[in-house]
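Repro:
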Amino acid sequence: MRKLLITGGAGFIGANFVHYWARRHPADRMVVLDALTYAGNRESIADVDCEGGLRFVHGDIADAPLVQSLFAEEQFDTVVHFAAESHVDRSIEGPAAFVHTNVTGTLVLLEAAREAWGDQSQGRRFHHISTDEVYGSLAPDDPAFTEQTPYDPSSPYSASKAASDHLVRAWHRTYGLPVSISNCSNNYGPLQHREKLIPTVIHNALAGRPIPVYGQGRNIRDWLYVEDHCAAIERILEAGEAGRTWNVGGRCELDNLGLVRRLCALLDELTGEGPHADLIEFVQDRPGHDFRYAINCDRIGDELGWQPATAVEDGLRNTVQWYLARWHNEGGHDAARGTAQ
C-alpha cells in the first residue's frame, strides 16, 4: 500500500492520474493538494472511490507549513508532482506566478520530503512531471529530444519548469533524495481546461465561433494521450531507478493546422454539421513561439517496457466524444477562450 501526495491532482493530467491510479491500485491512500486556480476543478475527481481513501486538500504547494503538516499527518512514501502553472501565453503576460508555483513550490515540496524522509529512502520516491518545452525548439529535420538534449527554454513557462527540473536533480545529488523526472510531450484527452488547443478548437467549433490558429499553423508538436502518460508514470514509480530521467512521448508529430483539421473532420462526422474547418482563422503568432517539439522515448521503452498504446485516431475520437457529451450535458454552454497553439 502506497501513501501518495499528488500535487495538482484536480488539474488535467493530475485528475486523469488520480482516476487511473484508483482503478489500478484501489488500496492505496491518495492525498490531492491543489490550489484550485482557474485550471483546477474539484469536480474532476469528486467521483473517485478507492479502498485506501482519497483526501482533498485545498492549498498552495508553496505554503511550507501546510506541506510540512501534510507530510507529518499522512507519512507519504510517494510524491507525484503535477502542480504547475503551464500556459505559455499566461506566462508571457505574468511570469511571477510561474516562478512562485513552478520554482518556489517545487522547492517547498523537496524540502518537506527531505525533512520527512531523512536518510530513509527505501521504498520512497519523489516523482516530478516536467515538459519537453525545457529543451527549446527544433528545426524540421533535427533529431528528436533525448534525455541528453541541453536545456534551452524559450518562454517564462519553460524556463520555470527547467529551473524546477534542476532543483529536483540537485536534491538527489546533494541530499540523496530519491527522485525521478519525466519530460512529457503535449497531452490531450478528457478534463483539459478550455484554454488549451484541443478544447479550444472543439468548443469554438461547436459554438460557431472562429477557430484561431497562430501564424500559418505550421508549428509541430508530439501528441500523447493522457492515459498513456499515466501508464508511463506508473511504470517509473514501479520500476524506475532513482535519479533517472525519462522522456515520455506519443510518437505522433502533427503540425497544428493538420491537428485542427482532423478535429474539424471528426466534429463534422459526429455532429452531422459543418464543415467546421471553414471556421479556421489565422492570427498573429505568439512571441518566441517554438517551431517544433519531438520526443525520443526510446529510453523508457528499453528500460521500463513502456510504449504509447493509443493511436492518435482513437485518442482524438475519444477526446472529441467526451467533450461532445459534456457540451450536450451542459446544454451547449460554452465559455471557451484561447488560441490554437
